[in-house]
Amino acid sequence: MKKLLVLFLLLLPVAAFAQDIYDVSCANLKRIRIARVDDTYWNIETYDGHFYVLALELKPDAAREFVRVRNAASTLHILYRGEVVPREYLMITTNGKPVREDVPTLTGFPDQGINIAVLREEDAFEIAREICPDLVPDKVIIDGHWE
Do strands 29-38 and 75-80 pair parallel, antiparallel, or not at all (unpaired)? Predict the structure, then answer.
C-alpha cells in the first residue's frame, strides 16, 4: 500500500505544488505609499496599536500582467484566529527574494497593485527601500486615508 501511495505521488505534476511569483521593482512601480492603520478593527495584535500597509501601485502594463498572474494563482486557505481566510497562493519578490509580509491574511492583491501588511513603521520603510529606493515616500499616511 505504501508503495502504491508513493507511486501516485510521483505521478502528480510538480506544478500542482508550485507557488506563483510576481517580482516588483522600480521598473514596474508607479508609486509606493505607506499607511498607518488602527489594529483594533482588524483583530491583530501590534506593538503600538497600529500596523502599516505598504501599498505598491503598479504601472498600467505591469498591473495587467500582475492581474494575469494573480488570476492564474491557486487559492491558499490560512487559519487565522479561528477563521479560515482564502488568499491567492502568490509570492511577491524583489530582486528574486521574497518580500516580507508580517500578516499574510491582510496582504491584498487589488487590480492596480499590491498591499503588504507590516507591523512596524521602520520595517515598512525598509521594505520600500529594498523594492525601489527612488519611490520611498517621505511620510506615512495616517489611519489609511489616501491622499
Answer: unpaired
Using alpha carbons, select from 61, 56, 65, 51 the residue that is nearest to residue 21: 65
* Rounded-to-integer distance, Cα 114 and Cα 20, Å: 14
3-state secondary structure of 40: coil
Sheet containing strand 20-23, edge to edge, reads 20-23, 90-94, 97-98
CA pair distance 124, 132, nearest whole angstrom: 12
Residue 31 has which C-alpha cell? 508609486
Q: What is the pTM of this model?
A: 0.82
Q: What is the DSSP string of 30-43?
A: EEEEEEEEESTTTT
Question: What residue type is assigned to position 44 of the chain?
Answer: I
The pLDDT-based confidence of 15 (bands split at 50, 70, 90) is very low
According to DSSP, the residues that pair with 87 across neighbouring strands are 76
Residue 6: pLDDT band with limits 50, 70, 90: low
